[in-house]
């Protein structure tokens, strides 16, 4: 993959390469792969695996890894990880071939011909993920990468399983990369790959990804934790004694079970120390005893036997069997006090639950003779519903920052969930911080739209009540309800609820929005002396509707009424289209005849701002305050009665709407020297910013001007009932290029909708 350097010619690195005698032999690794596959599917035909290995071996034969080893070692090792997850034959073949399209002369068409469309789809998906770039400092790029990952998962989630296996092997051999590369890949893994492995429930991969990442992100802390953990656990001696004790207790209760112990992995200890501000000596649950039984009944029977023998710690019992985690994890967790006074955790689960905990969604594609993994049951399909929800939401979002916010806050990819109950006892899981409104919309749109109140655990609560784990929620509805309030958008936590509320306003109030939009547009035209009937014609509307993706004029009016589009945006563009087809051609002779008796056709420089006016000299020039032109703008002069020439921008609304009689008073003008008329001179510019109102918005806007050492001359702000802020401001600048940079910076601020001059 991209983490490895192909055809290494030097060892310019922080770490030396391996000695040839220390190389892993590809043939030995291939034998290990075959042996691993035969453990879970002894009767399979391995011809296609051998064929894939031979082709990959020849394709990569001239390539080396950073360690100096033959490159083929990497894809075979990835295939071994996939086999350890007990995946199907197509996944393993794709794992062997996953780098061939990107790094060799082998093409996707050739893979399709040799191994079929299914394998080619998997290889192509992994190749595309490999080409993604990541930067922790660039939120938009990171969000876009995650977006593409989820799209790849939608086509076939095995693509991600192969990519996770690839990343795991690269982390295992990260010691041969530079220190900078080690940190970069470890950070990327911790930010993206480990959370995805966790969300898919694949603890086998997730735990190792986290520990290896910590090893390179915090090497000293990692080494210290591992050393202290091993010392405290007496090299595993304490765990063995406790496991033997619990095993005897379970057998005495007549329950068939497999009992073993495990130490808490390094990153889990590190996270607890950081999040809870504890020292290592204050971490007591360093190990756990796991009991694996045949049935759910045996799980609870084992729990009873354990609680008779050991004293449980209050508040430390969790039943993930009755309420599974979002990633399908099920188990009983209880924390007890051992006979020597040390706390320890016991996890009790069935063999099926254990497979799900270890393999997560990978169990979906385990190699089965009847290919049942390809035809999922309704229960298995439900396990993937969260993924489809992500895809549905992300298609509605054009803003990458909004999508990143969704991932971090609403989907719990990086945060916790809260569990609550319906009145009938069904479990609902929602993003942490959700309210009864989120709960109502998670049931159905109609329930949320008709909601007038809520009860939690039998008591009336405010609609902004924060749901706690275990709450029983009852939604109170009324047919007389007028629908959701816009205030709800600032209360709800889940994107599902926000989407449904916004949808209600767009559909249910469409007629009202059309009327309101028409009123706003008519008012705007009246204030600008624009004849609406002249510009609202099919030939002009066609381009405007296409630009904003409206199906008809009513949809455009509804958007203006809803507040998602400003009336000025629509009208000004219509005026531009009208002007293109109705522009009056006036000759220089006509202009000169009407503005001056001076018939000399020459350019006269007017000192004001270094403006050049055609055919006129020795006359006063002033800038029009209606449009405030600055150097770089296209300008035109207007000969006034007794006040000289006023300079306007060519897109000034007063120039666009000038009467036919007055058009002969227009005269050509331009800036001397282009966009920088007079060095050091400043010009007044005015802009209007439209944004969704939020705390700190004005501070963020002011910061843009402060950083450029520009003084604001004036600032005026007003907020509409829809929560849209209209901020008008004026300031002094040198020219249009400087203005464009300011506008570009302002557009980067969150919640900005549009900026107009």
Q: What would you say about this model in short?
A:
The chain is of the alpha+beta class and 757 residues long. It has a 6-stranded mixed β-sheet.
Keywords:
globular; alpha+beta; 16% strand; 757 residues; 31 helices; five-stranded mixed beta sheet; disordered N terminus; single chain; six-stranded mixed beta sheet
Q: How would you classify the helix and strand content by structural class?
A: alpha+beta
**Gap from first CA to last CA:** 49 Å
Strand content: 15-25%
Question: Percent helix among the residues?
Answer: 40-55%
Largest sheet: spatial strand order = 11-12-16-14-15-13
Provide the low-confidence segments as ranges: 1-15, 367-376, 394-398, 407-415, 584-592, 594-608
Choose one word for the global shape: globular
User: What oligomeric state do these chains adopt?
Assistant: single chain
Structure description:
The chain is an alpha+beta fold and 757 residues long. Helix content is 47%, strand content 16%. The longest helix is centred in the first third of the chain and has 21 residues, at 179-199. The protein is globular, with a radius of gyration of 34 Å. 35% of the residues are buried.
Furnish the topology, listing elements before pairings.
Layout: H1 26-40, H2 47-59, H3 73-84, H4 89-97, H5 100-103, H6 108-115, H7 117-130, H8 139-155, H9 158-172, H10 179-199, H11 203-217, H12 219-232, H13 237-252, E1 257-263, H14 266-275, E2 287-293, H15 296-309, E3 311-319, E4 332-337, E5 343-350, H16 351-359, H17 378-383, H18 385-395, H19 400-410, E6 417-421, E7 427-431, H20 436-443, H21 445-449, E8 451-456, E9 459-461, E10 471-477, H22 495-508, H23 510-527, H24 532-535, H25 538-548, H26 553-562, H27 567-582, H28 588-595, E11 603-606, E12 611-614, E13 621-623, E14 635-639, E15 645-649, H29 653-656, E16 666-671, E17 683-692, H30 697-707, E18 712-719, E19 724-733, H31 736-747, E20 752-756
Parallel strand pairs: 2-5, 6-10, 13-15
Antiparallel strand pairs: 1-2, 3-4, 4-5, 6-7, 8-9, 8-10, 11-12, 12-16, 14-15, 14-16, 17-19, 17-20, 18-19
Helix pairs in contact: 1-3, 2-4, 3-4, 3-9, 4-7, 4-9, 6-7, 7-9, 8-18, 8-19, 9-10, 9-11, 10-11, 11-12, 12-14, 23-26, 25-27
């Amino acid at each position: 993959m991209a983490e490895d350097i192909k055809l290494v010619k030097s060892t310019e690195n922080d770490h030396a390469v391996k000695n040839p005698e220390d190389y892993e032999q590809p043939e030995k690794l291939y034998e290990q792969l075959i042996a691993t596959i035969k453990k879970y599917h002894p009767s399979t035909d391995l011809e296609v695996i051998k064929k894939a290995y031979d082709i990959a071996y020849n394709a990569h034969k001239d390539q080396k890894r950073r360690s100096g080893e033959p490159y083929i070692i990497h894809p075979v090792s990835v295939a071994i990880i996939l086999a350890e997850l007990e995946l199907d034959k197509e996944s393993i073949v794709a794992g062997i071939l996953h780098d061939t399209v990107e790094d060799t002369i082998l093409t996707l068409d050739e893979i399709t011909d040799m191994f079929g469309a299914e394998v080619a789809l998997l290889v192509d998906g992994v190749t595309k993920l490999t080409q993604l770039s990541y930067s922790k400092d660039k939120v938009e790029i990171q969000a876009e990468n995650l977006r593409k990952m989820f799209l790849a998962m939608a086509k076939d989630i095995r693509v991600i399983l192969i990519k996770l296996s690839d990343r795991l092997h690269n982390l295992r051999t990260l010691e041969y990369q530079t220190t900078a590369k080690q940190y970069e890949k470890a950070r990327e893994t911790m930010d993206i790959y480990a959370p995805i492995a966790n969300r898919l429930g694949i603890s086998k991969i997730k735990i190792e990804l986290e520990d290896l990442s910590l090893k390179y992100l915090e090497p000293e802390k990692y080494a210290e934790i591992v050393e202290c953990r091993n010392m405290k656990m007496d090299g595993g001696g304490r765990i063995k004694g406790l496991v033997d004790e619990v095993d005897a207790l379970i057998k005495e209760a007549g329950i068939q079970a497999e009992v073993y112990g495990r130490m808490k992995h390094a990153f889990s200890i590190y996270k607890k120390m950081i999040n809870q501000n504890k020292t290592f000596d204050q971490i007591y649950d360093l190990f756990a005893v796991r009991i694996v039984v045949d049935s759910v009944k045996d799980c609870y029977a084992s729990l009873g036997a354990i609680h008779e023998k050991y004293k449980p710690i209050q508040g430390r019992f969790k039943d993930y069997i009755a309420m599974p985690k979002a990633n399908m994890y099920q188990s009983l967790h209880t924390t007890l006090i051992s006979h020597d006074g040390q706390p320890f955790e016991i996890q009790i689960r069935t063999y099926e639950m254990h497979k799900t905990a270890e393999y997560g969604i990978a169990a979906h594609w385990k190699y089965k003779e009847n290919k049942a993994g390809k035809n999922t049951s309704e229960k298995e399909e439900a396990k993937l519903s969260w993924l489809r929800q992500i895809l549905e939401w992300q298609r509605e979002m054009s803003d990458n920052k909004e999508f990143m916010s969704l991932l971090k806050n609403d989907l719990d990819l990086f945060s916790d969930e809260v569990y609550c109950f319906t009145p009938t006892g069904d479990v609902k899981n929602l993003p942490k911080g959700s309210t009864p409104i989120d709960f109502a919309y998670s049931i159905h749109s109609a329930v949320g739209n008709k909601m007038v109140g809520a009860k939690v655990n039998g008591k009336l609560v405010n609609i902004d009540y924060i749901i706690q784990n275990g709450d029983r929620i009852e939604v109170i509805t009324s047919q007389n309800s007028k629908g959701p309030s816009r205030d709800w958008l600032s209360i709800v936590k889940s994107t599902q609820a926000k989407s449904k509320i916004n949808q209600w306003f767009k559909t249910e109030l469409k007629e009202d929005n059309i009327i309101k939009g028409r009123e706003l547009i008519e008012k705007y035209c009246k204030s600008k002396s624009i004849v609406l009937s002249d510009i609202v014609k099919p030939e002009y509307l066609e381009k405007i509707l296409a630009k904003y993706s409206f199906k008809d004029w009513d949809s455009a009016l509804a958007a203006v009424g809803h507040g998602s589009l400003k009336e000025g945006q629509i009208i000004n563009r219509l005026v531009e289209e009208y002007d293109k087809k109705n522009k009056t051609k006036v000759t220089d002779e006509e202009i000169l005849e009407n503005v001056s008796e001076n018939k000399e056709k020459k350019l006269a420089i007017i000192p004001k701002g270094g403006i050049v006016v055609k055919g006129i000299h020795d006359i006063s020039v002033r800038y029009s305050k209606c449009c405030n032109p600055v150097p770089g703008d296209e300008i035109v002069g207007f000969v006034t009665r007794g006040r000289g020439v006023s300079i306007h921008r060519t897109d000034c609304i007063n120039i666009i709407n000038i009467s036919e009689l007055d058009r002969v008073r227009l005269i050509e003008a331009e800036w001397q020297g282009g966009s920088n008329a007079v060095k050091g001179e400043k010009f007044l510019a005015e802009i209007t910013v439209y944004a969704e109102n939020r705390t700190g918005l004005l501070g963020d806007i002011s910061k843009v001007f402060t950083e450029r050492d520009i003084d604001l001359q004036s600032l005026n702000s007003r907020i509409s009932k829809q929560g849209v802020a209209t901020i008008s401001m004026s300031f002094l600048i040198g020219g249009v290029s400087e203005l464009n940079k300011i506008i570009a910076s302002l557009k980067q601020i969150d919640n900005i909708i549009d900026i107009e001059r």
